[in-house]
Amino acid sequence: QVQLVESGGGLVQAGGSLRLSCVASGRTFSRYDMGWFRQCPGKEREFVADINWSGSSTYYADSVKGRFTISRDNAKNTVYLQMNILKPDDTAVYYCAVVVRGAYAYWGQGTQVTVSS
Fold it and tell me: From residue 98, how far is each of 1, 50, 95 by CA, in Å?
């Protein structure tokens, strides 16, 4: 079992920045790939970014490439999402998730990000 707790969401003006954090507990965090997703009301959850277990490999959705950065600190069991140059279209609930046996198996409760124009 893995517990994930996101934080760092809030209200920000367009062009601003936020850093989301996701703290994991319950398993050896450093063994697992991690990802960030987001969901807007009435829309499906969409992939944002992921990072491998060591932090040496990352991948981003085209919509956030060049603006968002995913990173991790295995000593703190934490994965981060630095979000810069935020746009109103980035408004969503952001979730972190952990990959177990090739699938996103555990999810956090989400943190709301609202970008005003």
Answer: 11, 9, 10
The CA-CA-CA angle for residues 75, 80, 84, to 5°, reads: 150
58 neighbors 73 (Cβ within 8 angstroms): no
CA distance 117 to 91: 11
Cβ contact 34:41 at 8 Å: no
- What's the pLDDT tens digit per position in 38-72? 999 899 999 999 999 999 999 999 999 999 999 99
Per-residue pLDDT reduced to its tens digit, 96-106:
999 988 899 99
What is the three-class DSSP state of 47? strand
Residues whose CB is less than 8 angstroms from the CB of residue 75 and which lie 6 or more positions away in sequence, other chains included = none
Instruction: Encode burial over 38-66: b for 16+ CB neighbours within 10 A, e otherwise.
Output: beeeeeebebbbbbebeeeeeebeeebee
For position 96, what pLDDT does the model report? 97
